[in-house]
Structures are given as structure tokens and as C-alpha cells.
Amino acid sequence: MTRTLDRSQVLTLLAELVRINSINPAYADGRPEADVAYFLRDYFARHTVETFLQEISPGRMNLVAHLAGRNPSRRLVFEAHMDTVGITGMTIAPFEPSLSEGKLYGRGSCDTKAGLAAMVRALISIKQDAIVPPCEVWVVAAADEEHAFTGARRLLTGLTAVGAVVSEPTQMRVATASKGVLRWRIHCRGKAAHSSKPKLGRNAIVDMARVILTLEEENQRLASAEHPLLGHATLSVGIIQGGQGVNVVPEHCAIEVDRRLLPSETAGTVFERYRALWRASRGVEFELPMLEDEAMETPQDAEIVQTALNVCQNMGLSCNPIGVPFGTDASKFNRAGIPTIICGPGNIDQAHAAEEFVCCREVEEAVDFYRNIMLTFV
Questions:
Q1: Long-range contacts at 264-268 (CB < 8 A, ≥ 24 apart)
Q2: Rounded CA gap, 118 and 168, in Å?
Q3: Model confidence at 2, in pLDDT bands (50, 70, 90)?
Q4: Residue 266's Cα: distance from chain center in Å?
């Protein structure tokens, strides 16, 4: 079988993607992902691969490239997101990709344009070799993963598929489970008074301190239940706001809570459990969640898992599935009934970092990995 794999091409493509500013509009200096989508549309067209766009909102869209398969009733989806987080605090030029000691630097290089470039090159190599894969193959460049997952939700509207691979930085380890996330605000309402007579008021910050201590007790309780791949659920208070002056008893205090979920939990049940702890407490109010994303777990005997692990074995990569603590588009695929794995080049520790980078060797391995799944998933 001919193999059209020029490893330098994937790094060239990755560098071109990094040069395109695709900061999610939810961040400062953000902009829609259209420039990446149009670039990839033209790139695929030069290699005679058919594409179509799925519009989400003005300037925001998914790009879908596809190859017909021998079995038109089975579709395999490879997905990576185009958007990145912001560039505040970066210590390197974010959109000027550079190579040093086998690493490619730049915003999005790790999360997750490396995986996107590898998926694109894998599909093109099959097209160039005039191979018809066993199943129809889609490569999706998705919008808005870094904020509201609207790209994945649009993609999955009416979509049927027998398996999916979502690229996120896993150092080319196959992840079959990921934690979910639930975020919400809690408000404590007190009564303002002059600080010289605090008994005339009710201190909302003091009330919130009691709430936080109870949440910390809950966090300790969570450590007692372990998932074999994900460890235990966690809770973190990330933001606190309250008070208007040192000489005023504060009438309001608010916190924002981040709770990471296990596959055995649902966001709704967890939220109601915490709200019930303070339902009878005066002045404690819960806002509806700002973000809900369920955890994901794909059975080890699922076709996509077994195919991916066989590919890993043949490539000399790790064959032990892992879990990841961060959220991805993969959970939306699973909830849509599509068995899904998460696997891609890069280390999550470098994602969103001041000096974001990806190991070039992993990007090159990813092309082989994705291509082999495309050709062996039957």
C-alpha cells in the first residue's frame, strides 16, 4: 500500500494555522473562527477533498471535510477545534510560530491546532493514495470549544456516526473518560451598616465564609470516592467578590464555584444537592449554573476504543487507556450516542500557557495514528 506521508507537511500546516488569530470571541481581542475555516476549505480544495461549512452565527462555523467509504452506512468522525484562548500574559509572540529543540511554539500549537493539522494531513494522504476507506470519514474543524461548545452542538444536530476521535492534548494516549464540569454563583445577602456599629447590620462576607468552609468540607468528602481512570471529583472556589468599603458592613458577597464531575454523577443532581444544603439558610441564594458539561466514559470494548488501541500497539504507543480531568467536545458526542475517544499530540500542561508549545514528534505520530484508524475501523 502506497503511503503519501511527508512529515514536514504537517508541521508546515500547523505553523500556518498558528499564524491565524482565532481567539474565541469570549476572550479579549477575540474574533470569529472564519479565517481558519476558509483557510482549511481552500487547503482541502487544493488537494481535491470535498468540504462544506456549517454556519453557527455570523463569522462562526464548522468546516467539514469528507471522504466516501466502502460502506456508506457507516461514518467515522475526527474532530478538533479551531478556536484558542486569549493571549494575555503570553511571553512569546502568539501568532509567530517558531521551532526550537523539537518543539513548535505559538498560541493554539498545543490546544489544539496540532491535532487538527494531523487529522487534515491524514485525510489528505488517503485521498492522495487513492484509497477508499472502509467507512465514510469526516474531519471536522469545530468552532467555540473554548467557551460554549456551540460548534459541537451544531455538528451533532441530526448527525449519525459509529465512532469519533476528538483531538485534545493527551500526549498520544487514548483517553476513554473525562470529567464533566458544573459552574455556578452563590450570593449571600446581608444588611449594610456603619462599621462602627456592626451589630446593626449583617455581614455578608462572614456569612459567605461559613458557606466556603462547608464547601471545603464537601471537597474533603469527595476525595473518598475514586474513579479508576479519573480519580475523585473536585470542587474549587475560584472567584469571590464582596464589600464596598472598609468602613461599611457588607450587604453582599458572591462566589463562583467550579465542580468537576465523575461519570457516575449528573450536573443537575449535583447542583440540587449543594443547593439543598442552604435551602433554609437566610440570605443564601444560588444562581442557575453558568456552565454544565457532563462527564464522559466510553466502554473499553467499544469498536473505536479497540481499533485505537490496536493502532497504538502496532505503532509502539501506550496501549493503556487513560482519563483526563478537563472538559472537551467529546462528551457531547457520547451524549449523542456516538462512542468517542480523546487522543491528540501535546501535553495539557502546555495548553493555555504563557509559552504554549507542542512536541513535533507527537504531531508527526498523530498523522499516522489518525490515518491508521481511518483505514482500519471497519
A1: 264/227, 265/180, 265/233, 265/295, 266/294, 267/180, 267/182, 267/292, 267/293, 267/294, 268/292
A2: 12
A3: very low
A4: 18
Q: How far is CA 146 from CA 174, 223, 268, in A?
A: 21, 28, 22
pLDDT at res. 142 = 98
CB 326 within 8 A of CB 174: no
| Residue where the block lists cell 500556518 | 16
Task: Evaluate whether 298 touches 337 at the Cβ level (below 8 Å).
Answer: no
Q: Which ranges of 111-203 does DSSP label H, i.e. alpha helix?
A: 114-128, 150-156
* Residue count of the chain: 378
What's the pLDDT tens digit per position in 211-268?
A: 999 999 999 999 999 999 999 999 999 999 999 999 999 999 999 999 999 999 999 9
Grid coordinates representing 7 are 512529515
- Listed in sequence order, the residues at least 6 apart from 173 whose beta carbon sits closer than 8 Å to its beta carbon are 317, 318, 320, 321, 322, 343
Q: Is 31 helix (H, G, I), strand (E, B) or coil?
A: coil
- Measure the CA–CA gap between 194 and 126, rounded to whole angstroms: 74
Taking the C-alpha atoms of residue 332 and residue 270, their distance in angstroms, rounded to an integer, is: 19
> Which residue type sits at 215?
L
136, 69 in Cβ contact below 8 A? yes
DSSP label at 289?
P
Q: Which CATH superfamily is domain 7-178+295-376 in?
A: Zn peptidases (3.40.630.10)
What type of residue is 226?
A: E
- The CATH number of 180-293, from 3.30.200.20, 3.50.50.60, 3.30.70.360, 3.30.70.1170, is 3.30.70.360
pTM beyond 0.85: yes
Of 334, 378, 271, which Cα lies nearest the Cα of 79? 334
8 A C-beta contact, residue 131 and residue 67:
no
SS3 of 180, please? strand
